[in-house]
Amino acid sequence: MKIIRDATAGSGEKSDCTVTVRPSEQLKIDITGSSAAFFRETMIDEVKSVLEELGVTAGIIKVTDRGALPFCMKARVEAALRRGAEE
Amino acid sequence: MPVNAVGREIPREIDGRKLIPFGGAYARGPEGKLHAPKIPPLIKPGESKVLPSLDDAIEKAGIADGMTLSFHHHFRDGDMLVNMVLERLAKKGIKDLKMAHIALFPVHEPLVKYIADGTITSTEGSLNGPTGRAISMGKMKGLATLRSHGGRVRAVKAGEIEIDVNFIAAPTADTYGNCNGFWGKSPCGPLSYAMIDAEHADKVIAVTDNLVPYPALPFSIPQTHVDYVTTVEKIGIPEKIVSGTTQITRSPARLKIARLAIQLIKDAGYIKDGMSFQAGAGGVSLAATKFLGDMMRKEGVKGSFAMGGTTRYVTDLLKEGLIKTIFDAQLFDLYALESLRNNPDHVEVSSEMYADIHTKGAIVNRVDVSFLGATEIDIDFNVNVNTHSDGWLLHGTGGHQDVAAGSDFTMILAPSFRGRIPVITDRVTTVTTPGESIDAIVTERGIAINPRREDILDRLHGSPLPIMPIESLLKKVQKITGAPEKPEFEDRIVAVIEYRDGTVIDVLRQKKMR
């Protein structure tokens, strides 16, 4: 899967997160928000696991967190990726 | 470095101050005599105590570099007096003040710059919000000492805090210094936390926005303690006394916690005639109070007293006759104010009578069940309410240690995680209250009973409640959230967390910035 356009998923509600994806030659994962101080490394691994599953190797992935649990964040990442990818 | 009874390393000394490691909730008895202020100056008949302005009062009190000032916190986030006074002192170039306030709130953010520029160099009170954050960042020259409500009273009585000037934000004051919080345009209810300071400070200034002819009744603070009376436009905003919620929580998880807690009290055998409890504010606590009333009504039980944190839900129980008395040291809404004014069974008590360990018995000792909160709880049942899990100093101790040690059955009501951050953890960031004082932890995912309470565990035998070892609760939570990274700290100690008896239960180091 390849990111060809900017796309977003999620919300700014508590226990959710906003995920933005953008096309890029390189892979960059950016994590900010309430859980970042506690789970940065874990969250990067969780994002990477979704990228791997969907075969995404490049793009800018930005997660702005408000306390999303892992399943929620991973679902938001997947939704953003699917929205930003070619059909 | 010596290790205290909750496994924390406590230095023998910081900046010349000797620290005694915490040894257990009742390990240390009092020594010596009570501290006394100077004998007051002669006040002859016909002399007036009223001064034209706050500036005059500050001048007359002779505030100088290095002095210790105190303020009560009954207006909480609606307080206006602390900022007014500190702004004036900073303008005069006064330095090196020791702030012995009861508690600061987000409204006191202007003090951050006075901490940074050396106007204030140490603090002896609770720090909620921006001032705590500034101290965590290492912006203050000296130390912050955090104490419980009872612990602060003890420290004043023991002379560990010697107050030079006490400012009382007085919703009503008469021309001879009698004060109360019942009446006026800015009522705050009890003046419980001002009482001990007024008794022990060398100079006491009542600042009011409702100056009345002599005498003002009731005199929560009597004329015998007050040097000067002065007026300002407004001392505080009563509507802001409640910084959080006045509504029962609507979160299903939190409602479940409250329901489980009340069923736990019932199954543990505490729903009986003459029962007493500690109530608080905050969504879960309000729900628990309401559900407790429902349970008492259903079981036909009449209680003895509630110790507040007073809200409409507690005053409703008094009105209905489900409890006989409310002891009030802090009110949280206007229903509670109406009740305090009009109901003779709703009485104001000093923070000393409420919570001080070195009295001949505080009210907390008479409490059967209490509902408390927590930022973190660990597998030793230690509770942290002072720092966030990321190590920022953001909250005072309040009555947590006092109520936990005093009440027979102390429950922590808390969600098992907030956002993704676990509340149940292997080791709390900071110990506020020792695990030996905590009897049960009630979360939406299960209840853990402190194994020390074999009597309670026996009584709960056969209860359908989801009771499990704390280790199982921890595992459940970590399975959902994952294990968080631990915060990192510099070497410098910025705050000492005192236990209510004056020993040190933990220290807090400067936060490491990434």
Overall description:
The complex is a heterodimer of chains A (87) and B (514). Chain A has a four-stranded mixed beta sheet with strand order 1-2-4-3. Chain A has one domain (7-84): Ribosomal Protein S5, domain 2. Chain A has two helices and four strands. Chain A is globular, with a radius of gyration of 12 Å. Chain A is of the alpha+beta class. Helix content of chain A is 39%, strand content 28%. With 514 residues, chain B is of the alpha/beta class. Chain B folds into two domains: 49-238, Glutaconate Coenzyme A-transferase, CATH 3.40.1080.10; 252-487, Glutaconate Coenzyme A-transferase (3-Layer(aba) Sandwich). Helices cover 25% and strands 22% of the residues of chain B. In chain B, the strands form eight sheets. In chain B, strands 19-18-17-16-20-23-27-28 form an eight-stranded mixed beta sheet, sandwiched between helices. In chain B, a hairpin with a 5-residue loop joins strand 29 (489-498) and strand 30 (504-511). In chain B, helix 5 (149-157) runs parallel beside helix 6 and helix 7 (252-267) crosses helix 8. Chain B starts with 12 loop residues before the first strand and ends with a strand. The mean pLDDT of chain B is 96. Chain A binds chain B through residues 14-15, 34-35, 37-42, 65-70, and chain B through 389-390, 418-421, 480-482, 484-485, 487.
